[in-house]
Amino acid sequence: MSARATPTSHSYYSQGLRLHYLDWGNPEAPPLLLVHGNRDHCHNWDWVAQRLRDHFHIIAPDFRGHGDSSHVLGGGYSHSGYLYDLAQLIHQQNLSPLSVIAHSLGGSVALRYAGVYPEHIKKMVVIEGTGGPHWLYHSVPVHERLRSWIDGNRKAAGRTPRRYPSLEAAFERMQTENKHLREDQARYLTVHGSNQNEDGTYSWKFDNYTHVMAPFDLNLEQTRELWGRIAAPLLLVSGSESEFVKHRTEDPAKYFQNARSIEFSEAGHWVHHDQLDGFVDAAQSFLLGED
Question: Could you write out the DSSP letters of every residue in 171-198?
Fold first, then answer.
């Protein structure tokens, strides 16, 4: 493997928003997009990118409202907005056909992109990205869904970003979110995932309004219709200790043309952090056709 690489930061525009992404170099190699989950950021992939950059031209974006990308004035975050961000990045940088590794919300959005543009996708590795909001799987009356959305926005409007007195305090909070994170991982994610406020305190970079998703979106039937259009090989990854697995009632691979599922033990929702070596080995083998 080559010496430790340092990515370069770039910006692009999507619906008037200035969005950020990291480019890990090696532009002559096949493109690989790394897509983070909700309230995460592009640096979540740095360990994965370091190990795969010799084989791929890696691009890792920050979704709107996340990391170093612009926030949406007044909120209004939706899967469709995130989908447009991905579509614009791929279009503007001429990345297709490409491979994708995506996590959680990023996986859900990337799968929708692949369903819309199946011809643009070579292979995909998706970590727990076939879930969704509870109303996607359970019948929720329209008035309740709208009331919940209104209440959620009001709550977000009245919530100021939590302030931590030091990076150490923010780091401690990070550790409580994932018991499998090594100390060095938690500190790294904290540094890249927070900003220092004018008064010297620290707050997370993500927009509070990302807690509130649009009340209406594709329904389950429409979502699975998109999944069924994806012809590219898919590797669906999960962690044995995640809530995703605990509440899963069936293998989602059956809704795709060419997918298989694997599960990592001693891993939660962030498999690419919790079992980094095993995950990278599996992803590399799959993407390079060695499996």
Answer: HHHHHHH-TT--HHHHHHHHHHHEEE-T
Per the CB < 8 A criterion, the answer to whether 59 and 88 are in contact is: no
Structure tokens at 174: 């990070």
Q: How far apart are CA 33 and CA 61, in angstroms?
A: 8
SS3 (DSSP) at 151: helix
* Domain CATH code at residue 242: 3.40.50.1820
Residue 105 maps to a domain: yes
What is the spatial distance between Cα 172 and Cα 160, in angstroms, rounded to a whole number? 20
Domain count, the chain: 1
Q: Is residue 199 part of a domain?
A: no
Tokens, residue 287: 């993407």
Over residues 141-163, the pLDDT tens digits come to: 889 889 988 999 998 888 888 99
What's the alpha-carbon Rg for the chain, to the nearest Å?
18
- The structure's pTM equals 0.95
C-beta of residue 223 within 8 angstroms of C-beta of residue 80: no
Dump pLDDT digits (tens) for 214-269. 888 888 899 999 999 999 999 999 999 998 888 888 999 999 999 999 999 999 99
**Closest-CA residue to 37 (of 61, 20, 13, 56):** 61
